[in-house]
Amino acid sequence: MESKKLIIGYWNIRGLVRHVEYVLEYCGADYETKLYELGDGPDFSKKVWFDEKFNLGLEFPNLPYVIDGDFTLTETVPVMFYVAEKYKPELNGETAKEKGKVKMLMAILHGLKWDLTMHCYRSDDANEGLKLSFEGLENISKCLGDKDFFLGDKLSLPDLYIAELIALIKAFDTENTLAENYPNIDALHKRVDELPEIKAFLESDRCKDFKFNNKSAKLFPS
């Protein structure tokens, strides 16, 4: 029998899972999170994950994962698309053009998030991280323009994804320059975080007070 509760697996950090949580919470999905803790330095053992990694029925074992009854899926963006399709498919776009734009934006945003995350593990230079962030936001800001959301007046997956991405960028931005340089992006971040479902999540104990990165990172480690 298929379980009604989704199981989400990830490290006990914000990392990539907070993006997934935004979708789960906005959709009102019933879920629980399985957290894995990286070992302490200098070895930073991943044993707690490796002990389960190949025993969960995952076709391509990785974190984050979702287990939905007898169905499993890995990789952040596909998991987000799956949750949206299951509960609120309009988040994935409603026409061929909207769906194409949503997929394009998700690829762009996830690429930027990955670049910034890798910077955090390779360097302790927050200023350089901010420079990379602003370079990445240039075309994203142009795409958003003066619209409330990327699809105009309709919320979609990229809006939920970018909220957590901007939270990371603001961690680099110690002098709070984002609002001056990209006011439309800053406004979108606030708009998403004020959605009733998201606001309730951010103020709840379900929103764990985790750091952005794992213990081995040079910036914002747990």
TrEMBL record:
Annotated ranges, domain GST C-terminal: 95-217
SUPFAM superfamilies from the UniProt entry: GST C-terminal domain-like (SSF47616), Thioredoxin-like (SSF52833)
UniProt-listed InterPro entries: Glutathione-S-Trfase_C-like, Glutathione-S-Trfase_C_sf, Glutathione_S-Trfase, Glutathione_S-Trfase_N, GST_C, GST_mu, GST_superfamily, Thioredoxin-like_sf
Record's catalysed reaction(s): RX + glutathione = an S-substituted glutathione + a halide anion + H(+)
Signal peptide: none
Coiled coil: none
Top-level EC class as recorded in UniProt: transferase
Domain GST N-terminal: 4-91
EC number(s) stated in the UniProt entry for this protein: 2.5.1.18
Homology family: Belongs to the GST superfamily. Mu family.
Protein name (Swiss-Prot/TrEMBL): glutathione transferase
Taxonomic source organism: Euplotes crassus
